[in-house]
Specification:
eight-stranded parallel barrel; globular; TIM Barrel; 13 strands; three-stranded antiparallel beta sheet
């Protein structure tokens, strides 16, 4: 109800300014005790990656890049929260404006470019948060790190965040960092996954716990590329795959203001492409590696569609912008009825 009243005002503002204002308002409400205790939110427990989730509805990376709002976001009832993408060094991201709403299509285009305050700042925020639920930390490379040295950035971040993450997401699919998607090619991905799994083994021995790895992939992959990625995920015993990131396609938004802006498209037009990738992965993985479904989930029916295609968990982002926080509980309740 509150969001339905606030949305018209927020949509009058620049999208990035509205983004920060919304999160600031949520944090203030939570600080003043005006948000429900997360423990009072509905549950629908599920075990994935060896972790116990209160419910299968999570927050996708990108909304809280630095972990500034973990406790406030937890008050919305998410079963898990993913923060980032974070890089080894702080970076400003791409020039503004870089975030655009396309309300006619319930879509968003962003070319943020991994803007973040660096992994050390994120970790300070994680340590200061009261949240004790499942926390994913999404890691990437700095924009000026050559692609042939990308593994060094991922390994640096993995070592830093490992003691503090429930799982670590490996972002190799953002369209907004030059050449990043090259890491999805079979040879590149094989080398990267081998390095990450070796480091994971070292860290598991050091910290006496195994933190799962989840690889986030693009919706723009051909079937053959999806099959190759699935084979590599199985070969390297990766614990999960996130499908999908944003798309470079503009199908479904033609004629919209901002439709030709550069960047990744998310929201309702992404739904079909994301679900296609989930279905293809599910057929190839045969339940051996869980899938986290993301992309175009705007209501409970969309969430069920992702689960029916083979996802074990789902994540929200653009749906929150258009539907508001009530979407979280709506989906938890619907998936609970299904189970």
């Amino acid at each position: 109800m509150i969001y339905s009243l606030a949305r018209p005002l927020l949509f009058m503002l620049d999208a990035e300014r509205a983004h920060h204002l919304s999160l600031g308002m949520l944090e203030s409400l939570n600080d003043f005790g005006l948000m429900p205790n997360p423990a009072s939110r509905p549950t629908n427990p599920v075990e994935v990656m060896g972790l116990e989730f209160r419910n299968p509805v999570g927050l996708a990376a990108g909304l809280d890049k630095n972990g500034d709002y973990i406790d406030a976001l937890a008050s919305l009832g998410f079963g898990f929260i993913e923060i980032g993408t974070v890089t080894p060094r702080p970076q400003p991201g791409n020039p503004k404006p870089r975030l655009f709403r396309l309300p006619e299509s319930r879509a968003i285009i962003n070319r943020m470019g991994f803007n973040n305050a660096g992994v050390d700042t994120l970790l300070r925020n994680v340590k200061n948060a009261r949240y004790k639920g499942i926390l994913g930390i999404n890691i990437g490379k700095n924009f000026d790190t050559p692609i042939e040295s990308a593994a060094e950035d991922y390994l640096h971040c993995l070592e830093k965040v490992y003691p503090h993450a429930s799982y670590v997401a490996i972002n190799i699919s953002s369209p907004n960092t030059q050449n990043l998607r090259q890491l999805q090619q079979a040879d590149e991905l094989n080398k990267l996954l081998a390095s990450l799994k070796s480091k994971q083994g070292e860290l598991a021995a050091r910290f006496h716990k195994k933190v799962p790895l989840a690889v986030k992939i693009s919706p723009d992959l051909a079937d053959e590329a999806i099959d190759e990625i699935a084979s590599l995920l199985l070969r390297h015993e990766i614990e999960a795959v996130i499908a999908t990131n944003t798309t470079l396609s503009r199908e479904g938004v033609q004629g919209n203001e901002h439709a030709l802006e550069a960047g990744g498209l998310s929201g309702a037009p992404l739904k079909q492409a994301s679900t296609r990738v989930i279905g293809r992965l599910s057929a190839k993985l045969q339940g051996k590696i869980p899938i986290i479904g993301a992309g175009g989930i705007m209501n409970a029916a969309d969430a069920k569609e992702k689960m029916d295609a083979g996802a074990s968990l789902i994540q929200l982002y653009s749906g929150l912008v258009y539907r508001g926080p009530g979407l979280v509980g709506e989906i938890i309740d619907a998936l609970g009825e299904k189970s």
